[in-house]
Amino acid sequence: MSGTYLGMPSFPEAAKDAVHNVTLRANLRHATHTIRDKRARAVAELADWAQLREAGKQIKNRTLRHLDRYLEQLETAVTEAGGTVHWAADAEEANRIVADLVKATGEREVVKVKSMATQEIGLNEALEAEGISAYETDLAELIVQLGDDRPSHILVPAIHRNRGEIRDIFAEKMGSWGRPAPDGLSDTPTELAEAARLHLREKFLRAKVGISGANFMVAETGTLVVFESEGNGRMCLTLPETLISVVGIEKVVPSWRDLEVFLQTLPRSSTAERMNPYNSMWTGTVDADGPQTFHLVLLDNGRTDTLADEVGRQALRCIRCSACLNVCPVYERAGGHAYGSVYPGPIGAILSPQLRGIQSEIDASLPYASSLCGACYEVCPVAIDIPEVLVHLREKVADQGGKGHRLEKAAIKAAGWVLNHPAALAAGERVASRTRKLHPKKPPGAGAWTASRELPELPAESFRDWWKKNRT
């Protein structure tokens, strides 16, 4: 994924620093509670929400089972509509394809729609290495880019910033990227939005190349769909002469009828709206209207490997609504940067290790970045059982080995033997009861567990001995 995350520490280490950041925790608490409360009210308006949720799950499952067929159908439809389809096995190939397409136009700058896929592959950095400037146009992404920062939320990438911080970023950095912020800029939402509008307007009007992702791709017609709330995406999708869309292969849905389900569930789960203000849909190219050249880059980058895992593949149902982040007690306290990925929160804890593998320290730690409370599963609009996948991935990490895991497996094996031999268990219980005053309060090797927990005191006698005395 993005090179900006290379070298990040494991989740526990990063989270330990984050929880001591008072401003970060205040920003996250206010934002996540506000969004999730609004979402709950929006969802409650639909009497058939449970049925829609199940329908979304089944549509995604059916699509994933026959993904090869639907992708071929999509390619045919896009090509017949005047577009060109490219297949990218990994981030390096996708970045090369996009860079070559931009250079072929002779341009050296592009405007971008908010896109998780392009963040995943580190496209901005790859284009910069080729001498191409990529300008983010989503307001939150603009804040992150100007602040030389990393996104920390799927829906609201700058959720970790408050209005005062945003004003300072605009005042200090806008001038070096284009039109400077107005003098005397305040931190009111209206003035901040106006400063962003003026800054971006000149970029929209001169841009010849636009880059986007997509929320969905409709296989039967070759149509791509982007939901957004600001209108900046609409500008990127309609004004440039060339449009390049980088989309994960799991974003395909078979038909327009299937899309109808997600038109109801995604807006309510993400922005708590009945419908997004801007729903942009495009199919290939049309003479004298919109981009005259359209390229679709279909991105694998670990998705095929994820698809092969019968338990883990449900992560590919994700429609990037971010509802799971807003209810997660771990995310609320640690923030998105601690996850070391463009996919933070509960969904990131199961998606990133599968896309990237669990060989690195950060990816091996992500399945443990959860209390397994299940709140994420309850709000997921496509019913991804995130706790189930977390436990499944923890098993994989444990099987991978390492000193700690070897000790754990040895302890479990020993416990299994004792539990299968009642006489040995009884003897152990008697010894433990009679030597309880000698027991350390924190057993060696269990510091990570006992640092925030107290071990129960052993009773003077075991239940087995009590039973013999009182029930025989």
UniProtKB/TrEMBL annotation:
| Residue numbers spanned by region Disordered | 431-453
What is the native source organism of this protein? Streptomyces lunaelactis
Recorded coiled-coil stretches: none
Limits of the LUD domain? 71-298
The Lactate utilization protein B C-terminal domain is annotated at 394-470
**Keyword set includes Lipid biosynthesis:** no
Please indicate which superkingdom the organism of origin belongs to.
Bacteria
- UniProt keywords, alphabetically: 4Fe-4S, Electron transport, Iron, Iron-sulfur, Metal-binding, Repeat, Transport
Bias (Basic residues) occurs at 433-442
Which segments constitute the 4Fe-4S ferredoxin-type domain? Answer: 315-384
Give GO MF terms, alphabetically. Answer: 4 iron, 4 sulfur cluster binding; metal ion binding
Please cite one Gene Ontology biological process associated with this protein: lactate metabolic process
Q: Give the protein name, as stated in the record.
A: Iron-sulfur cluster-binding protein
- What InterPro entries does its record include? 4Fe4S_Fe-S-bd (IPR017896), 4Fe4S_Fe_S_CS (IPR017900), FTHF_cligase-like_sf (IPR024185), Helical_ferredxn (IPR009051), LUD_dom (IPR003741), LutB/LldF (IPR004452), LutB_C (IPR024569), NagB/RpiA_transferase-like (IPR037171)
